TrEMBL record:
Transferase recorded as keyword: no
Protein name per Swiss-Prot or TrEMBL: Mitochondrial substrate carrier family protein
Source organism of the structure: Acorus calamus (Sweet flag)
GO biological process, one term: transmembrane transport
Solcar repeat spans: 137-217, 226-308, 317-402
Keyword hit for Transport: yes
Membrane topology field: Multi-pass membrane protein
Locations listed in the record: Membrane
Keywords carried by this UniProt record: Membrane, Repeat, Transmembrane, Transmembrane helix, Transport
Listed GO CC annotations: membrane
Amino acid sequence: MKKRKLPRRYAKDFLRRTRSHLFSKSFGWRQFLSLMEQKEPTILRAYTTLCLSKSGTLQKSQILTSLKSAELPASEENAAAMMRYLNADTEGSISYGHFRNFMLLLPSERLEDDPRSIWFEAATVVAVPPPVAIPAESVLKSALAGGLACALSTSLMHPVDTMKTRVQASTLSFPELVSKLPQIGLQGLYRGSIPAILGQFSSHGLRTGIFEASKLVLINVAPGLPDFQVQSISSFCSTILGTAVRIPCEVLKQRLQAGIFDNVGEAIVGTLRQDGFRGFFRGTGATLCREVPFYVAGLGLYAEAKKATQRLLDRDLEPWETIVVGALSGGLAAVVTTPFDVMKTRMMTAPQGLPVSMSMVAFSILRQEGPLGLFKGAVPRFFWIAPLGAMNFAGYELAKKAMDKREGQLVNDEQMREKGMPTST
């Protein structure tokens, strides 16, 4: 790639897509072949858009025609440089094999660009990846996809969350709580659902929007950063800001779930009267200690698990397979972060007006219930977070793809209307 004057980032991207696991520093023929098969259709389509001769090759005259049609400097020198760049004789011709060997080195997203521009840029100047813009529409689309995915999963899984909260906030075990379900009833299981859904929609919408924007900024500012580090830094920044928005809703939700208040209005007034405005931010430290590792580790685990599954199956995942990977990644990350969730629940449901800290709660649990007390509610938390993980990680990705596909269809329909052709709608 250095020989081709391609950015160092392209080599890192190539290795990231072909290696068998996160820490591998090499790849074999099977991994290379898998990547080649993924890129081949796009490269072939790109090649056929060039002004090919009847024999399916490119001579200097066809390259000049291709440059003119792309409104690029069409000079003999540039055409000769482009032929030499692909290791072809300037008096001979360029075959598909020459073209493919170069295009295989490019990241997948660059394959969607005009092949004439990529080839011309690489052959005549030092190739630099185009600056990544941060389109407001794309960030808003990401925020909407993330917010809707999380709000839907929260509304469906709220009863499991209520059971988890009741177990963590009391001395009851999970089987004992299950035996009390007839007395609690469906209405009791859905206590606190309104602040929960509103809080999850706003915080996850903000988190996914900031996550996408942060990734684009990092790619621009530090193009050499490995993809895993870009994901982790973006997750860290977006999770802190997104969680800060949700904490007041989380306090109200948990106090309603634990039966401290009967409705949202009473919870707001009671919290203000007894704890003041600071009461809405009880458990902030424990919440951040839970959320940051959950999303940073969860997103990283999801990305690597999806990649490993694709390599194992040797194909792209079906939507249902993507959802299963998201669910397992979310559930595993949830179990690991359960101790912070227990401390957060105890702090938010502690008697009003009394000062409480993470260390006080942790020592109290360890003294009275032992180390296993920190993992109270791990089982319902797994079954609650697994579907949330499916929606937050996989559902968000699938929703965004659906939006992009729909937008592409609308653009295509508009172009067909302008030509007077029938559309898909």
